[in-house]
Amino acid sequence: MSGSVPKRRGCLPSLGGYRRRQGAGRAESARLASTEHISLEQRLGTLQWVRVATVVLALATAASAPKELGITVARALPLSIAYLACCLAGQGVDYMRERWTPARPRPGGSGAPLQQMLLPVDSVYLAMLTVPSGGAQSDLIWLFAVQLIAVTLLAGRRTGLRVAMWDSALLLAISMLKLNGPLGELLGAPQVYVPSVQAIMVRISGFWAVTLCTAYFSVLSERELRRSKAQLDALTKMASEMEETIEAGGNVGQITTVLLASVLGPFGFTRAAAVWERKTVVTAARAYLVPGAATRVEEVQLTSSPLDSPLARRSVAQNNPLLVRQLPSYDEPVLSSLMPSAENVVVVPLRAGRDSLGLLLAESGPPAGRRVSRRTLDMVCRFGAHAALAFSNAELKREVSTLAASDALTGLANRRALSGALAREIARTARTKRPLSVAVVDIDFFKRINDTHGHLKGDEVLRDVARAMASTVRDVDIVARYGGEEFAIVLPDCASDGAMAVVERVRAAVAALATVEKVTLSAGVASVIGEGNDGELLMAAADEALYISKNSGRDRATMARDWVVIAAQAAPAPPPQLSVTPTPSPPAGGAATAREVPASTSLSLAAKEAAASSLG
After folding, report:
1. Per-residue confidence at 369, pLDDT binned at 50, 70, 90?
2. Is 208 within a domain?
3. What is the 3-state secondary structure (H, E, C) of 273-301?
4. pTM score
5. 24, 257, 570, 609: most buried, per Cβ within 10 A?
């Protein structure tokens, strides 16, 4: 990584705004999940209100139009009270049983058994109400339809069919057993009209038509609710996966993979593609549903930006999804190359605030007239909005991480990033027994450049030197600004000879710069192999070698032998051996003479200060 900041994962906390939004989304999902399933007991409790409304209607009819109902309020009231008492007693028994009985698995997984057994009582009550006014020919026969609709929706489709069968059998039994007269006399209506079998069969057919239609529409509604739930679950899962991807320092490719895999499943799309454009860099990928396998996602290289196409401009300008029957290759060459021969394509702009980040395309496939519901378009837009927000936050986090680990003036790694990279390389060399070298480089007479030409020119020199160093080292090397006019180079898998060669290339590249003055470098290099090493000691050894270079006339590089680092940890130690690579002639102003370092002592902080004072 020449002149760049090494990739660091998990070095920064997550973005607060993004986490708050995701936390609110998860809380809302948990709230919806808690209220998603309504128990059978609750639904049968709602059925009690239907019964109460039926009784109130029957009593009101008996009071206002007794001839229509065939009985008076005095006759209907005891029957209605007994009916409600029976139903409420069943509900109370089930409630007490549920409250005081220890929880245990229920056969068939059903609750409120007594209330379910009392469902035929509804039919008996309605039959007794309608018999005095003509039974199947009564004007109140529609109450059976209300009962069947309520039972089918609240107790379930199978229960509705069973109640419809019971209603049919009850009406036939009353007619065939000639119970109309006795029931009429019991309710105070001695003259009762007896409907024909054909009229009863017509009413029974109506019962079944109502029940079957209600069950069918209930299936459709349930299917739509399940589809909506699956889409919301997929949206929640995608948001969670994208948050984890951002936390792990994922890139735009990983975010795109999560987006495409999440969009394909719940909506039944056959293909999907996403395009991101950020700072003239275009990233595109497409995904397929492979039968019997996982979703296949592949990156696509585009020759130009698809955001410049007419379709993309129209979608971004309207900020709404578009449904395109086909992608013509003559009008949309880039998009058609991304999704060849696509039919019924949903085009969704990916925006974060006012910034247009890209496009999301999803193909529902043939036939050409296939409809895509507005709700599907809205949900795909939600997916795209979450993805755009995640992409924007990932870019923001990457920029923040880069700023936190880079030097503002030169763009190189800063001291913090250098410490982290050096610690990792020290651990790696201890594990792999591979060599590691560190070079500390200083610009000679930089203070004179600042004093003579000003600090702005001095900053330009620092930037030029940083660019020259970054472009000269290997890709795996790490160049950092160590402080002031000092730089450090971490050289993995590089022994002392190779490190000296890299440093000499760097010095030659800097010497060839066309700056306000000729710039030269002094350098110190230290190398280690294996265990027992420490990053600070290695930097200290290279720093001491740098001071030898400066004390020897500058514009040169000095190698500190490997054991110099070991000597700082254990005693006694052999005398330091420093090799100096001299330059034939010192630069202008470098009149200082080389000072001999005693062979019996290693350079300490006092020695550094003495060397610095002698050099002015």
Report:
1. low
2. yes
3. EEEEEECCEEEEEEEECCCCCCCEEEEEC
4. 0.57
5. 257
